[in-house]
Design a protein that fits this description.
This protein is mainly alpha-helical and 74 residues long. 38% of the residues lie in helices and 0% in strands. The chain has a domain of 33 residues.
Length: 74
């Protein structure tokens, strides 16, 4: 490896991994949901936001659909 590099001669190029970067979003989650994921994250030793991302990625990979059963109006 050289001791010095001339950075002025380097040409820029796009980051090939830029499309795979995570996008920051703001979400409103119930306190009990956050507590649940934080507890699980502590057990496995990962940040809770990463755990939520892994769970959502698993839903995506397995094409899970949300099933909501609303209570019928009386």
């Amino acid at each position: 490896m050289k001791a010095e590099y001339d950075l002025a001669t380097l040409k820029s190029r796009k980051n090939p991994y830029a499309s795979k970067l995570k996008k920051p979003v703001t979400m409103r989650l119930s306190e009990d949901v956050v507590k649940y994921f934080k507890g699980m994250a502590d057990e496995v030793g990962v940040p809770y936001q990463s755990l939520i991302n892994l769970y959502l990625r698993d839903c995506l990979a397995n094409s899970r659909k949300v099933q909501i059963n609303w209570p019928k109006a009386a």
